[in-house]
Specification:
With 139 residues, the protein is mainly α. The protein has a domain of 94 residues: Tetratricopeptide repeat domain (Serine Threonine Protein Phosphatase 5, Tetratricopeptide repeat, Alpha Horseshoe), CATH 1.25.40. The chain contains 6 helices and no strands. Helix 2 runs antiparallel to helix 3, helix 3 packs antiparallel against helix 4 and helix 5 packs antiparallel against helix 6. The chain is globular and about 45 Å long.
Length: 139
């Protein structure tokens, strides 16, 4: 994992250095760092990368662009794993609304978010019975 993190940071940092700013094309790397940090359990770092990617994609392509919505969905997943259910639901709903407009209700990307929202509702229904573990996941 350390090698993957180093490569993503190198790619991202090199592009910023070369262009003097964070080009829109490098927002993929920012999102990928968010994914990597989440997999490593570095939740604060993951959230920072996802937020940076969402802000950059909103500026570059708009709030309803499918790339923006992908990262919004990722942020929802992260919030769910942290037990931040209201924030997770807000991200999933935002992603779902935009995906339904962009791709329609039956597109596979839309259905991934439908599934994520359904899983969140299952967790919320059992909420009083569940307790967060130390790593932020639910048991």
């Amino acid at each position: 994992m350390a090698e993957a993190e180093g490569m993503h940071q190198r790619a991202w940092g090199g592009q910023v250095k070369a262009w003097g700013r964070e080009p829109a094309s490098m927002l993929v790397e920012v999102n990928n760092l968010g994914i990597l940090y989440a997999e490593q359990g570095k939740m604060a770092e993951a959230e920072a990368m996802y937020r940076r990617a969402v802000e950059g994609r909103e500026k570059a392509w708009g709030p309803e662009h499918t790339s923006t919505l992908d990262t919004v969905n990722n942020l929802g997943v992260l919030y769910k794993h942290q037990g931040k259910m209201a924030e997770a639901e807000a991200m999933y709903r935002r992603a779902l609304e935009g995906q339904e407009k962009a791709w329609g209700p039956e597109h596979t990307s839309t259905l991934v978010t439908v599934n994520n929202l359904g899983n969140l509702y299952k967790i919320k229904a059992r909420w009083p019975k569940r307790k967060p573990c130390i790593d932020g996941r639910w048991k």
